[in-house]
Fold this protein.
Amino acid sequence: MNVTILGSGFGLYGYLPALHALPCRVVLPERYRPIIRRRAELSGLADNIVFVANDDEAIDLADALVIARRPADQAGVISQLCRRGKLRRLLLEKPLAPDPAAAAQLFDQIEASGKIVRIGYLFGHTDWGRGLIARAAELRGDLHVRWLFRAHHYAVDRSNWKRAEAEGGGALRFYGIQFVSLLAALGFDHVLASRIRATRPGEAESWDATLVNRNGARCLLELKSNAAEAEFAITAPADNITVSRHDPFTAAADDQDRRVPLLVGVCREFLTSEATTAPSDRKSITLWQAIEDVTRREIVL
């Protein structure tokens, strides 16, 4: 199976090594070759890649396509990709679009084309995430979620799309969307409250929310993307659940991005499944919209 990647950032340092671990042939546009050669953790993969002249030629050869671009850029290419008959599979990075309404429209469009589509949510592929999903039906006590970190753009004071809510960035739309997908899979589908706070208009440094599942258990979530100290913790004392670590992801070997081991699982399912959509992908977009509908936004001086 030929797999093409569009995206010279996470597409290469994340998805490329993950696909290298699977039985497929990676086809890339020639312009990615020098980027791969310059990165120590990727340079050894270059000889196993088929390089072609440009993006169009790579897409023409693809049976499956991974798109890891900015949300607005992903949305711009979906229509033409849905018309390509040879292309059967699409894996898109999260968030699918800058906002849930646009994401729902794109998802409908891809689903109507009959192509197999997946969104690159990772939390359900972690050991702790799989454990929570396995116990979803029995969760009856409150679930407390706390994720604190300092995003790179805040650490170096860089202005980019990842801090702009309107472009799909920020604590909820870029980072918290991982939890939205997981909470949808866990059945926390009723939103009681949601708040975003930032020091600048148009940004979202923190997000806190309260959701409820069908058993009446609450999820109390706190996410800060500009925190001084890093912490990742999930506790549910009544259900004997405790997760505590520096961040959600397991360290990877050989200087790889720590998300690569999880992406191997995402890509394996993407390349082998015949199900058109993942059960939780539609639910996650619906829950995202429900969260946005009640979210209060505050500027903190």
The radius of gyration is 19 Å. The first strand starts at residue 2 and ends at 6. The mean pLDDT is 95. DSSP finds ten helices and 13 strands in the chain.
